[in-house]
Every structure is written in structure tokens, then in C-alpha cells.
Amino acid sequence: MAPIRVLVVDDSAVVRRLVSDALSTDDDIEVAGIAANGRIALQKIAQLRPDVVTLDIEMPEMDGLEALAEIRRQHPALPVIMFSTLTERGASATLDALAQGARDYVTKPSGAASVAAAVEIARTQLVPKIRALCGRTTALASALSRPAAARAALRSGVAGRVDVVAIGVSTGGPNALGALVPALPADLPVPVVIVQHMPATFTRLLAERLDGASGLCVGEGTAGAPVERGHAFIAPGGRHMVVGRRGTAVQLQLNDEPPECSCRPAVDPLFRSVVEVYGARVLAVVLTGMGSDGLRGSEAVVRAGGQVIAQDEGTSVVWGMPGEVVRAGLAHAVVPLGAMAGEIIRRVAVGRTAAPAAMPVAAPTVAPVVAPVVAPVDHGHASGRT
């Protein structure tokens, strides 16, 4: 199989070398070329026909957002990974880039003890994302043995009352949440808790954007916040978010326990905690994302008698997390992104005297935070090569 060809775009020669060295450690990846700004990058894309572009945001002559807009116009299927800084400005620009069609992002190494450490950080972040966006991942779910209780729950086909919706999402998540959350009605009779794999600052800005576009009150989760209907909470970057009972109330709890599936926040701890508090009255939703986070949490939901729905492959940027759940036989339904809000509303209405008023799913009445995914990723043909 031919290596994945990557064009590295950054105005810093040091960063270009760092990224090139990081990518050279993987036999499946080849640095096809480098560029110092967006204008040169557009020329190199036409010449080199890369499979993936890593794109800095702040550059002279033509910055990353300007270059991205032109790449999307000229090469709509070419995956672009933004190279961002861990700052408020960098986070905001990254969310703008994702809205304009970037597939994913990584953050520039900061505070590394040495050049070798910085290269390793870049490698750890970039290589899995590049491989995932180009379909070079391996399914993991075959190793998971689904227990008899989970099989029996799925066979029953009985949809019970839902008292909480828990959502797990990663790569492609800001766009997916930007399509889904504003399509949920303000009078949704259950709370929504969300883990999106993102660092601190990014999660706060994402919550603010979703709040401005949604009927629900959306915020970054804080310790002790009451988990109530009409509210959606996004786990803060760098901390696990779970739910717990205090008397008759349910509250958010944050912790710094070790990462799970190399992530903190992670989906699995949230899913386990909603099962502990709500038992069978859980609706777990696994959206687009790389890896297998959410798989074991979904198993806990199904074992307890709750429900799991997964995003379909065609509308996922990366069908890793939802694909693992589907292949393990844990999904009660596999749903395209555009129908996900309607599916959630329908399931939440079961056992209630009146269903919440459904807003249009495909086109929210207010502008979404980020543009929804409208087409599947073209694995292996982004550059026109076969």
C-alpha cells in the first residue's frame, strides 16, 4: 500500500522540521513537501497532490483560514488538519476552521523539555489522526466479548423511559454537535451530558457557541452543577466529568483520574457514571470520533438495560468510536447525523404523556455553531490518486 503523502504548511522553519521529523517515524506516512504560507501551499497541492495537509493558522501573505477556504473550493475532499496554539485566540480560530471544513486539529507542543520531546508530542497527536482520516485504522471491537446480559437486552427490543442523554464524540465532533444540539428542543424533558475530546479553553468556547445557537442552555461542566432538564453540559478539557447523587439531586463531578483510551475527559467514565445514577433510564449516543472511547461505557449501558445509538459511517468524519460500538453489537440503532436529533426526541418521549416539541432536524432555525458534515470522507481518493 502506498504511503500517505502529507504536505506540511507552517511559516516557522522550526515547526516544519519538527512536524516532518514526527511524521517520518511512521512507515505509512511520507512528507510530500513543505510550504511557508497558504499561497505557496496552494501551489504545492496542485503540484504534489498530497493525501493530507497540516495547516498552520497564523501565517504571512495568506493565513490558514484564507488558505483553507481556497483548499475547500479547489479540493473539497482533501483532508486538512489545523495546527493550533493552546490559546483563546488559537482555540477560536480552530473552531472557525472546523466550521469551514477542516477535518481535525492538533495543538502545537508547548513546554516540552527538549526538541525530542516536542517531536514525540507532535507524533502522538498527528500520526493517529492522519491514519484515521485516510482509513488506515484497525477495528478493535472483535476483542470485546459481549456478555449474555447485553445480548439479552438487545434482543428484547423494549425501549424504556429515558431520564438522561449522554453523548460521546471526538474527531468531527464540533461540527456534529453544531448540527445536533441546536436541533434539540428547549423543552427537552431530560438533561444532556457531553464528552468532546478537546483541551481546556476549546471546550469552553465550544459550549459558548453551542449555547448561542441552541434552545437548550449549554455550558461547560462545573463541579456541583445540578443536572437538570433543559440543560446540556460539555466536559471541560483536561478533566473527567461524571454525574453523582447528592440526596435526591444529581450533580456534576469533575476529577483528575488517569486518562482512559488516552483521553481526559473520556467518554467511558461519563457513561459508567450515568448508569450508576440512572440505571436503565440512560440513552447513550456515540458520534463521530477516532479510537474506541465509549465502547466499554456503552457495554455498561446495555448491560444495565439502557439504550445506545450510534452515528452511521456515511456521515461520520471518522467511523472509529461509533463503528466500534456497532461492530460489538451494542447499538440499538445506527443513525445518520441529520436524523439523530429526531431519534433522540422520539426515544425520550417514550413513557411520557406528551412529547417535547420537535424543532426541524436538518435545518435549525438559528445558525449552527459549526457546519454539519454533509458528505462522507473520501478515504484514499482525496488527492485523485488510487
Task: Tell me about this structure.
Helix 11 links the parallel strand 13 and strand 14. The strands form 3 sheets. Strands 8-9-7-6-12-13-14 form a 7-stranded parallel β-sheet, with helices on both faces. The protein is an alpha/beta fold. The protein is elongated, with a radius of gyration of 21 Å. It is 35% helix and 19% strand. It folds into 2 domains: 4-133, Rossmann fold (3-Layer(aba) Sandwich), CATH 3.40.50; 141-349, Methylesterase CheB, C-terminal domain (Rossmann fold, 3-Layer(aba) Sandwich). It starts with a strand and ends in a 37-residue tail after the last helix. Helix 1 (13-23) packs across helix 5 (115-133) and helix 9 runs parallel beside helix 10. The relative contact order is 0.13. Residues 141-145, 357-369 and 371-386 have low confidence and may be disordered.
What are the key terms here?
19% strand, 35% helix, five-stranded parallel beta sheet, 12 helices, 386 residues, Rossmann fold, 2 domains, alpha/beta, seven-stranded parallel beta sheet, disordered C terminus
CATH-scheme architecture of the largest domain: 3-Layer(aba) Sandwich
> Per the principal axes of the C-alpha atoms, what is the gross shape?
elongated
What is the typical, i.e. mean, pLDDT? 88
Query: How much of the sequence is in beta strands?
Result: 15-25%
CATH topology of the largest domain: Rossmann fold
Poorly predicted tracts of residues: 141-145, 357-369, 371-386
End-to-end distance: 10 Å
CATH class of the largest domain: Alpha Beta
